[in-house]
Specification:
The protein has about 400 residues and is of the alpha/beta class. The protein is built from 14 helices and 14 strands. Helices cover about 40% and strands about 15% of the residues. The longest helix has 20 residues, at about 290-310.
């Protein structure tokens, strides 16, 4: 007695094609999609990368002459032509535009997210490394502030990937000598999902360039002008980018999945005192690339576990917030008026901008422009004074008082 079991033949998908009365298949989107889904040599060829927002060719197509050399890659316009030719040879006389539509449709049957899949695939060994990350691998100080910067940076990056568009507008700033490997360290951490090149901030191009990026380096922050730093602050605060892709017919809303890290060779680069809460400066002295490469997976595994456990990616403890504020003030570019103004207000409890300009800075009233007034206001705010409205002689006026007053 034979042990061979006869299996039923695979269904003939071609019987389901839409046809004319002559039997010729329609040159339709439905038929092209059916062939891509059902033909054995095509059915596992496509997938959609949700993170990068693009269609991927994930297995060797039948028109590739050397399947052994195949590597997954983004689908291209040239692939549209090759697939069109293949489908036409099967008797479905479609045009490349229809093939492109069918490819986009079928690819979304298999949606993947490479960063999420990576984070879910690594098992944490239980050893805590995150809070000492900047000290261990970049030679930063060993204190609670630095520990919080390192862990919050990593947990925030995980949060952005798992919950695109979540609030995460803090930017760690790695300060260190040129050539020690700050950018290489970031490339090691974020791998293929790292980027350090961007177009004009706020433009459609810059928004499109962030798609598929996990870690973005804002390099040489000290080289930005005051206006450019202001644009950086506004840009990193966005949670969603809106743009219409080239040849696209609709405006897309893309919740951000990336985080930002600044690098600089200097220790003074903040041009004014507004919005600096976003920046977390840390001095780094060296980069242990070998150690970072060795422990990269475990650093991300720990960050993933902490995020899943509800860990915040912002500063909670008051002493850490206060240390961050001190670090930010220390990075303000020196203003020649600073010492003069600080000395003038030392014995006073309140001042007006006019008093400072006339009695401390000693410039003529005809030169009291908006720039000069803003400059005095920045110095006062950076020194811990706040603007209040007071009534003097029956009139309302603005003055600055010590924050504790």
């Amino acid at each position: 007695m034979s042990n061979v079991v006869s299996l039923p033949a695979a269904p003939d998908w071609t019987k389901e094609l839409q046809r004319y009365s002559s039997g010729t298949p329609h040159a339709s989107l439905a038929n092209a999609s059916m062939m891509l889904r059902e033909a054995p040599e095509l059915r596992f060829m496509l997938a959609y990368d949700e993170f990068a927002g693009r269609t991927m060719l994930v297995s060797a197509p039948p028109w590739q002459f050397d399947p052994q050399s195949f590597r997954p890659r983004p689908w291209s316009a040239h692939d549209d032509l090759l697939a069109t030719e293949y489908i036409q040879r099967a008797g479905i006389a479609i045009k490349p535009a229809t093939t492109a539509q069918a490819v986009e449709l079928v690819a979304r049957d298999r949606v993947g997210h490479p960063v999420r899949e990576y984070l879910e695939s690594i098992d944490w060994d239980g050893k805590h490394r995150l809070r000492t990350m900047l000290t261990t691998y970049l030679g930063a100080a060993d204190d609670p502030y630095v520990a919080n910067v390192g862990s919050s940076m990593m947990i925030g990056a995980v949060a952005r990937v798992l919950n695109p568009g979540c609030k995460h507008d803090h930017v760690p700033i790695w300060e260190g000598p040129q050539g020690i490997g700050k950018s290489r360290a970031l490339k090691t951490l974020f791998g293929d999902f790292f980027c350090d090149e961007i177009g004009d901030l706020g433009s459609k191009d810059s928004a499109m360039q962030l798609v598929g990026v996990w870690g973005f380096e804002i390099a040489e922050l000290d080289a930005y002008s005051r206006a450019e730093v202001g644009r950086v602050k506004a840009w990193v605060s966005r949670t969603t980018d809106r743009f219409r892709p080239p040849y696209g017919t609709r405006v897309l809303e893309m919740p951000r999945s990336c985080c930002f890290i600044g690098t600089t060779n200097n220790d003074t680069y903040l041009k004014d005192d507004s919005g600096n809460r976003r920046f977390w400066p840390v001095k780094v002295n060296r980069v242990d690339l070998a150690g970072l490469e060795r422990d990269r997976d475990q650093l991300w595994a720990e960050a993933y576990r902490l995020h899943k456990g509800g860990a915040p990616w912002w500063f909670i403890k008051r002493e850490v917030v206060e240390q961050a504020q001190r670090e930010q003030r220390d990075r303000l570019i020196d203003d020649p008026w600073w010492d003069v103004i600080v000395g003038y207000v030392e014995t006073r409890t309140s001042v007006s901008i006019a008093e400072v300009l006339a009695d401390a800075v000693c410039i003529e009233r005809s030169r009291w422009g908006q720039i000069e007034q803003n400059r005095v206001a920045r110095c006062l705010k950076a020194h811990g004074w706040c603007r209040v409205q007071v009534r003097t002689g029956g009139k309302q006026s603005w003055r600055y008082k010590r924050a504790a007053e």
